[in-house]
Amino acid sequence: MSDLMNGLIEAALCASEAILDIYETGFDVEIKSDDSPVTKADQAAEAIILEHLSRLAPNIPVVAEEAVAAGCVPEIGQEFFLVDPLDGTKEFVKKNGEFTVNIALIRDELPIMGVIFTPVQGWLYAGVVGKGSWRGDVADPRISHEITGWRKINVREPREELNVVGSRSHNTPETEEYLKAFNVRTKTPIGSSLKFCLLASGEADLYPRFSRTMEWDTAAGDAILSAAGGTVITTDGNRLKYGKVVQDDAPFSNPFFIARH
Questions:
Q1: Domains, the chain, ranges and CATH?
Q2: Whole-prediction pTM value?
């Protein structure tokens, strides 16, 4: 692993320490202007990650979910970080454990490096496009940041019957209509960016998303999936791009997309 990747992993694990403390002791939920929930765990985790990134790569801009919500949208160039300090806040509030910490590096409109960690389960995923993706385990980052079972992962070969993953909180009729064209073996709802991880590790085949997402929701999972041999395309067949600042929508919003092996 490169020094930068090791630094991103450390940032995610340190942020997870704060998340777990808040998760176990109770928290209030606020509603942002876009009607999405936010807790002090989102805010504390983002502050920790931003501090780490400022030391790791002080010249690379950071687009972080809560900072953007507060109106802090940095100027970006060919290279920038995307941070979702707590992806799946609805799952966090429900206390079902299906939430993640996401950090990604974007270069020339594509994610090239990503880290995803699930604080409750201790699953760690990392990917570098052109080098590969890995999965490991961290039992409890508040006790130790030691990674065990570190192994390379890959998407699986195409098959006739597909295992599909989808949003636990945002399934749509458009998704069901799209899936009619496929021989679907199983459909599993799951929260946060874990859907990308299941594709990257060969545990699922297809993730269609026909509802709202932002770039920080998808970038780390996209990097890990791409490094494992998969791809993420828009509904018109083009590669999903990053750094989108358009006039008729919020900055860094995504179109509908399909993630696949």
A1: 3-153 (3.30.540.10), 162-260 (3.40.190.80)
A2: 0.95
Amino acid at 40: K
β 184-190/79-87 pair status: unpaired
DSSP state, residue 72: -
Backbone angles phi and psi of 214, in degrees to 5: -115, 165
Helix (H, G, I), strand (E, B) or coil at 40: helix
Q: Is 173 helix (H, G, I), strand (E, B) or coil?
A: helix
Q: Please give the structure tokens belonging to residue 101.
A: 């910490």
pLDDT in tens, 63-73: 999 999 999 99
The tokens for 128 are 């570098």
How far apart CA 116 and CA 154 sit, in angstroms, is: 16
Distances (CA, A) of 147 to 89, 123, 134, 135, 141: 25, 10, 11, 9, 10
| Pairing of the two strands 206-209 and 123-128 | unpaired
